[in-house]
Amino acid sequence: MMLQMSVNNGHGLVPNHPLARTLAQLAEGEAGVLDHLDLPDDIARRLMELGFLPGHTIVPARSAPGGNPRVYRVDGSEVALRRETAARLFLRPSKGPGKASSI
Amino acid sequence: MSDCHDCAGCAVAEAPALHKGVRSHVVAIIGPPNSGKSTLFNRLTGLRQKVANFPGVTVEQRVGKARMQHGDRDVVLVDLPGVYSLNPRSEDEQVTRDVLSGAMPGIPKPDALLLILDCTNLGRHLVLAAPILSLKLPTLVILNMADDLKSRGGDVNTAELASELGSPVALISASKGQGVEKVFQFMEGTAGGTAAPAPPRVELPVLQDIPQCRRWAHDVGSGAAYRAPAPPIWTRRLDSVFLHPIAGPLIFLTVVAGVFQTIFAGAKPLMDGLQDLIQKSGLGIEHFLPPSIFRSLLVDGIWSGVGAVIVFLPQILLLFLFIGILEDSGYLARAALIADRTMAKFGLQGKSFIPLISAYACAVPAIMATRTIENKRDRLATILIAPFMTCSARLPVYTLIIAAFIADRPLLGRFFGMQAGALLGLYILGFVAAIATARLLKSSILKSERVPFVLEMPPYRWPTLRSLSLRLIDRSRVFLHRAGTVILLVIVVLWVLENLPVKNGQPPPIEQSFAGMIGHTVEPVIKPLGFNWKIGIGLISSLAARETIVGTLGTIYGKEGTEESMGLRQALRSDLSPGGAVALLVFFAFAMQCMSTIAVVRRETGGWKWPAIQFGYMTFLAYLCALITNEVVRSGII
Question: I need a surface site. Which of A64, B52, B53, B67 has the fewest CB within 10 A?
Fold first, then answer.
């Protein structure tokens, strides 16, 4: 996976890099694969129990008025997170061309 | 278990009891949130259950007796909090762990377990099977929501799953009652000592490694030919309406306004009817008994006092009916989502919204409704601010004082006068005090930045009549229990204070009664607020329920004790300064003058600590603000 990452993104994204995309940046209906959770261990584990596991595909669904909090489809269920939490869940760079072009 | 009470409909005397000789067979129900755990518990126990808190914590404990057809031993069911794992990070998980290991005082170690999982999401829910199976207790793995799984095209081979896990597996629908007989059969077997757990065929994963546990669950599911169902199409359709950027908030406001309207306007005829009934039956008893001091205690004290609390029952039941429909249908989670951003500004979260709205009717059901908030700190903050909301028991007091002291001059046009403005002002005052307190709490003792807001969105479901009525019965039981114990005690004590010492076989004039003496004793303390000793007695009597002060003042001034009584209004006008009157309104807006609320906070927080802090804080705030109000009005600034 790390290999694909550097191949697909010539500028060599690393986790926590400012250019790495987070869940908060996905558009509604746009799938993303979770890479890692940049949260304290106990909170990360709580979210992992809800299905926010590295490697899982997450699709943002509808949100409250104003876009926050937003519902995410993950591991067979729907879970709402506030933007501040979603912004700490980093995604794997997408393979498809053009998908990561928003940043 | 101090909250357990003896009631005829409740067969559990001291559950889970160790009965003479034969020890009860204890079965614990465990499952993730939204797995239908409570529905199954209700299915298995019916009304033979009771709700309390686990000792010293805010976690709810539900214990009941299973309705067994066969077998001599009683089967006691313990409903554990919903958890995803047994890693003790929250109070819920700690309690679950303690009960399962037999470390929870008052609850014997379970003899068998019912593990309930939502089979429409088996991959994720099976993760909990790993720590549960490692306990090596006889366990029935219950796959709930079988009807949903089938209708959405999912499938699972239960026989294969059972042999993989080494435990029996039952595919059921707890809400429809399908397959529940298999659960009874399992409990009969374990109670009879015939079921021994087989070791799981699959190797259990390392429990601390969540990704590994999740892979394990997936492999077990695949081994049992699990086919996940199609996404819930109706839920998505409904969400596209209920969470629509424009329609969503409009529906939300309509629902809130509808609930509000019904608990006030809809409950009014019922409450009036009930009040009438209590009054008439009181007169009937009075007619039936010879005049004596005991008749006075029974009719004027107990009957009318407890009646004053019971009058709120229709409103409370309607409120719980609404909350029940909202919660069981799945809309409550959507409402919480929509309300979250606004509530977050006050340091609270979306799930606090419905309880706080409910508190406009009565703080007691509102505080009970906070059980839907999983985050303990948010729940506590909501409990602590709920009594600031203007409950309906404050209205008679407000009406009386406003009508007596504030001239009804037009303020904004013909339909909005000074009196309506004053009432609205008091509503706003309570609301501002609530959010200011919330901010204060969340930036000090209840600071919880570490716990993020996480809200699972359950699929929409039809609420069942069965579950709604069970909930209503349970809540009325709790409420009436309060009215029948704490409130009764307070009322008897107040009656004694108002009617003793006896002079020449007659109760004394109220000024010379113990209550009058207390009124005179506290007068120096409340004088700076502009209150005299008579108001002092009123304040003490309003501890039972706020509106009691109206009747008490009626007695003291020798006038008819209703908020419409012109005589009482005039008597107050000549006896109370304008400053004192406005201060009294402010005092009632802030003070926690309600024994029922104090009792329910103690129950919900599992001790006296929080109600004591809350009572102290609210009384201090009430005193301080009433003092300032009196000074400001007296000095003529306003």
Answer: B67
